[in-house]
Design goal:
The chain is mainly alpha-helical. Helices cover 59% and strands 0% of the residues. The mean pLDDT is 81.
Length: 116
Amino acid sequence: MDREFKKEKFETLKIKSSVAQKFKRYSRAISKSQSMSLLAMLEFFEATGLSPEERLGPNIKTLESLLKKRINAVIAIVRDIEKNQTKPTVAMMQSLFEGVEPDKKELLLEKDSKSK
């Protein structure tokens, strides 16, 4: 039983018997009481802002394949940018920096004054 709602009284709702049977089967399938099943449904619809009358459209597999296609397209764009813009720019910068090396000077060592 629902511990939070243990002291509340029951109300009756008028629903068709075929709908009641379907709801009972669904409640048993998700292993919750009928009250908790109905509460979970109401909270879901309130949280998501969906209406039970709306259809979600394509199923999850279709959405997943669309997302994968878009991700692959983005990866292709990034690789193209890297190939045609980033790598040539890096190569030019490296050649500039390699061409202008500072002159290497000999290190000046201090002479020992006692050695004389």
